[in-house]
Amino acid sequence: LWSDYLLPQNLNHKQAILNQLAADSNDIIVINHPHLRNGYTAEDVKYLQNYDYLEGIHPRSESIALWDTALTYGHPIYLMANDDYHDINKDNQIGNCLTILISTNKTTSAILNCLRHGSTIAVKLNQKPTAHLKERAEKINRLRRLFSNYKLSNDTLSISLNEVATIRWIGNRGIIRQQNKSKQSSYHIKPDDTYIRTEITTGDSIEI
Asked: Is 176 helix (H, G, I), strand (E, B) or coil?
């Protein structure tokens, strides 16, 4: 998209660009590291529409509070995590933040469908800066063994893990509604919960 505006941009400029991108229904639109250099503010995400994801987890910037603001104001936006990997000669820049896609099918259309419907999990691995590639890969592979089940039954969300972790259920304005340290946890969605999301922290500091 070659249309652009000079910096800084106001809310209308940002929405105009998103609208142009969203005109192609095949697009999946991610606002990259929105908090970096105050590119997007809480006031912006109260109103912005026509995008799918916020890159809320990034090695140099976190924007989870902006995600909670968007969700609180009724925008069904998903969260993405990304290394923003620029230098292939620096092992410490890879395997820090990633997005899991929940799909048994690896075709392009299946992957895009996953992204469109938010069948994703954003992860911050909190790798040691000195960890070599093999260690980083092992920590990533642990994620395959972590989840046992996650389901919605009527108005109750339940999660089962294969190890003890801190499980937080978070709702409106990013407030923790319930917290457990266990392999299993359930949350009964209340009438005043406009949304509920889950945060998990493992014993070795993986944040999910």
From this structure: strand
Distance, C-alpha 156 to centroid of its chain: 22
Name the residue among 118, 136, 123 with its Cα closest to residue 97. Answer: 123
Secondary element (H or E) of residue 11: helix 11-22
Q: Which residues pair with 160 in a beta bridge?
A: 149, 184
Span 183-201, pLDDT tens digits? 999 999 999 999 999 999 9
What global pTM score does this model have? 0.92
Q: Which positions ≥6 away from 102 have C-beta within 8 Å?
A: 114, 119, 120, 121
Q: Are 136 and 83 in contact (CB under 8 A)?
A: no
Distance, CA of 25 to chain centre:
22
* DSSP secondary structure string for all residues of 86-107: --TT-GGGSSSEEEEE--S--S
Question: Which CA distances in Å does 64 have to 45, 76, 100, 122?
Answer: 12, 14, 17, 11
pLDDT tops 80 at residue 42: yes
